[in-house]
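Data availability (excerpt). All sequences and predicted token strings are deposited with the supplementary files. A representative entry, GNAT family N-acetyltransferase, is shown inline so that the format can be inspected without opening the archive.
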Amino acid sequence: MTSFSIRHAEKFPEPGFSELNRAVFVDMQQPSMEWASTLAAETAAAAPAEQQVHSPMHRLGAYVQDELVGWTCGWMERGNVFYVANSGVLASHRRQGIYTALMSAIREHAKSMGAVAVRSRHSVMNNPVIIAKLRAGFHISGLSHSAQMGTLVEMTLHFFPEREALFRERALPYVVPVA
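Structure token line:
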């Protein structure tokens, strides 16, 4: 097993991070010129205040020596929920505990910031991550659609038993007793 470390990062170095991101998500993203053009137009049209819609980005990187081989990043949302925007591990470094360590590190980081839960969204085709999150105590909490990624499954990890109980109560269908 490869030795790795998890570290906070102000920013991941470019163009290396963009290349790593493309390598990790090569099977899931469906880039197109139309999508890139739409994003560019929206970004250009947005006012500066609208571009910063969340708290500052928090980044954790997984490094083998000084090589970035995996990452997770996100921000705090309203309601003290930490949103994991994206994570990934290079294919050549998977199945070595790196993703699990990143999940653990971001969970502890979110708790230290006062989060009550961690939320993330993943392609419904990304079974390894969905399974890893379920094993780590996350629950499927919704579905959505992304023009870039297709159908996404939302997953949530509640930090407190009371929140977990409320989630379970509201997630299960209400059955009307027969008189």
